[in-house]
Amino acid sequence: MIGGLGMPELLIILFVILLLFGSKKLPELAKGMGKALGEFKRTQRESEFKIKEEPKDAEVIEKKEEIKTESKEETVQTTETTEKSETKA
């Protein structure tokens, strides 16, 4: 049973589809639906991967910015220390 549909209902639906499209067109329709479903699943996996990777990328960027800020602060402190020692001498 699929979503509340029993076997008789599914057979009626398949029969109506066969009448509408004909037996020659059904394999083409199935192939097209299969390709569309495969493309949908591939895109879904890619989207999930990107969503999982974005926080990691953001963390890496934040760490790089912290390192740059720390190195700038160290440079300023070193410069200030050097200037103080030069003024004392």
Structure description:
With 89 residues, the chain is an all-alpha fold. It has a domain at 57-89. The protein is 88% helix and 0% strand. It has helices spanning 7-21, 26-88. The longest helix is centred in the middle third of the chain and has 63 residues, at 26-88. The model has no long low-confidence stretch (mean pLDDT 79).
Write a concise keyword list for the protein shown above.
single chain, Sec-independent protein translocase protein TatA, about 90 residues, transport, protein transport, about 90% helix, mainly alpha, protein transmembrane transporter activity, rod-shaped
Gyration radius, in Å: 33 Å
Shape: rod-shaped
Low-confidence stretches: none
Element order: H for helix, E for strand: HH
Family: Belongs to the TatA/E family.
Subcellular location: Cell membrane
Subunit structure: Forms a complex with TatC.
Organism: Methanobacterium congolense
